[in-house]
Amino acid sequence: METGMVLVVVCFLAFFSKSLSFQQELTEIKMEGLREEVRNLTQRLQQLNTTLQKEKTGHIMFYAVIRGKSITYNVDTILVFETVIVNRGGLYNQYDGVFVADRKGMYMFSWTVSTSSSNWIVTELVVENQIISTAGVQNSGGGHPSGSMTAFCRMEMGDHAWIRSTGRTSSHVLYSNDNYPQSSFLGLLIYSE
Ligand SMILES: *[C@@H]1O[C@H](CO)[C@@H](O)[C@H](O)[C@H]1NC(C)=O
Ligand SMILES: *[C@@H]1O[C@H](CO)[C@@H](O)[C@H](O)[C@H]1NC(C)=O
User: Fold this and answer.
1) 171 lines ligand 2 (CB under 6 A)
2) CB-ligand 2 contact for 74 (6 Å cutoff)
3) 76 with 110, same domain?
4) Which residues form the C1q domain (predicted)?
5) CA atoms of 25 and 32, how far apart (whole Å)
6) Ligand 1 binding pocket mutation candidate from 31, 35, 36, 44 (most atoms within 8 A of CB)
7) Do 10 and 70 fall into the same domain?
8) What ligand 1 atom has the least distance to the C-alpha of 34?
9) Could you tell me the CATH number of the domain that includes residue 188?
């Protein structure tokens, strides 16, 4: 009778210790899974952080004006906004008036042109060989009215963008005051792809 009891207890202990070690093993496996998940998440976080830092330092925008001038353009002439206020990324060239995209993405451009008494100026935004939009004014009265336009456009890396006079008239007169310039061109990267 006593031997029987001992046997039962021994069996129970053996089973209990076995199930305990099985539990420990299970916990260990779960822990390893969690560690791997944390490692994976940390790696992903670092990748996202690197991307974020790149976006920050890679921010691209320019704003340039024409100051104190009255210029007459023929047809198909690039307007050179020679006075740079900001040019982050250095992609706008103030000597030829052309912006060059250094990455594929969505860009925004906006420009304004003013004219003088009884003159016309009609311009267009061109990306490579595509006309994106037009802005201008046909002034039959006095003063210095202006035309303005804002546009979004997708650009490939290396694409060029510029403002040029159209074929609407053979003589476009642009006017801009020195102290308060009325003719300007700006652009910025909205997002890269
Ligand atoms: C961790 O990343 C590896 C490789 O991408 C993947 O095979 C594994 O399933 C991931 N583990 C967890 C727990 O997410
Ligand atoms: C992200 O990167 C910056 C610069 O490399 C670093 O100072 C910062 O601690 C990083 N943040 C995280 C959460 O890793």
Assistant:
1) no
2) no
3) yes
4) 55-193
5) 11
6) 36
7) no
8) 13
9) 2.60.120.40
Query: How far apart are the CA of 101 and the centre of ligand 1, in A?
Result: 37
Percent of the chain with pLDDT over 70: 97
> Alpha helices of the chain — where are they, by DSSP H?
2-57
- Give distance in angstroms: CA of 48 to centre of ligand 1: 17
Beta bridge partners of 109: 151, 187
Tell me the residue range of the domain where 29 lies. 1-57
- Is 40's C-beta closer than 6 angstroms to any atom of ligand 1? yes
Q: Which amino acid is at 79?
A: L
Q: Measure the CA–CA gap between 38 and 31, rounded to whole angstroms.
A: 10
Does residue 10 register a pLDDT over 80? Answer: no
Q: Write down the pTM of the prediction.
A: 0.68
Compute, in angstroms, the gap from residue 40 CA to the centroid of ligand 2.
17
For residues 91 and 155, membership in a common domain is answered with: yes
Q: How far is the CA of 44 from the centre of ligand 2 (A)?
A: 13
Q: How far apart, in whole angstroms, are the C-alpha atoms of residue 142 and residue 26?
A: 87
Identify the domain boundary among 57, 76, 98: 57
pLDDT in tens, 113-153: 999 999 999 999 999 989 999 999 999 999 999 999 999 99
pLDDT at 1 over 60: no
pLDDT digits over 86-105, tens only?
Answer: 999 999 999 999 999 999 99
Q: Is 168 exposed, middle or buried (0-12, 13-18, 19+ CB in 10 A)?
A: middle
